[in-house]
Amino acid sequence: xxxxxxxxxxxxxxxxxxxxxxxxxxxxxxxxxxxxxxxxxxxxxxxxxxxxxxxxxxxxxxxxxxxxxxxxxxxxxxxxxxxxxxxxxxxxxxxxxxxxxxxxxxxxxxxxxxxxxxxxxxxxxxxxxxxxxxxxxxxxxxxxxxxxxxxxxxxxxxxxxxxxxxxxxxxxxxxxxxxxxxxxxxxxxxxxxxxxxxxxxxxxx
Length: 205
Known about the structure:
Elements: E1 4-11, E2 19-20, E3 33-39, E4 52-58, E5 71-77, E6 80-89, H1 93-106, E7 111-116, E8 125-138, E9 144-156, E10 161-173, H2 179-204
Helix pairs in contact: 1-2
C-alpha cells in the first residue's frame, strides 16, 4: 500500500522540540510554519473466518505525552525525543491509530458494528488500546527505523470481564530520512501489524 499525502497547510505550531527522560512535551507555539501533512491507510485482516453480529467500540488509545500529538516523533537515542521538522500527521497519533483500527476491522466484513467509543450503539465488547511506541528510531549507523508498538485488550462491556489481551509490535526501515520515506516505513510496519491485530480482535470480539 502507498501512503496518502495531504495538501500542505499552515500548522499552529512547528519546529523541533526536544525531550529528555520523563520531561513533559515542550510547548510548540510557533505559528505560521508550513508543515507537510501525512495520512496512513488501514490494512484489514482476513475476510473469511469467525463472524459475529456483535458491536465493538474502540477506545481512544492511551499514549505518552510525546506520542499524543500530531507531530512525527523521532528518537535520536533511547533517552531523547525530537520531532520530524516540516511534517505532521493528519491528526493526533492516538486518533489516527483509533481510526486505522476501526477501518481495518470493518474492512473484514465479519462484525456487526465497529466504531469509536464516544458514539454508536451499546457495545457487546470494547477494545482498549495502549500505544507504547509510534516513532522513528535513529539507528547507530544513521538509518531510520519506524516502530509501532501497541497493546490491545478486549473486554465484555456488560460486566467488564477481560476476554483477551495481547501486545503487537512491528518495525520497518526507511529508505532515507525524508518525511515521505519515513511515513512509507510507518505504512509498511502497519501493513503487517494491522491485519495480525485485526484477526486477533475478530477471534475475541
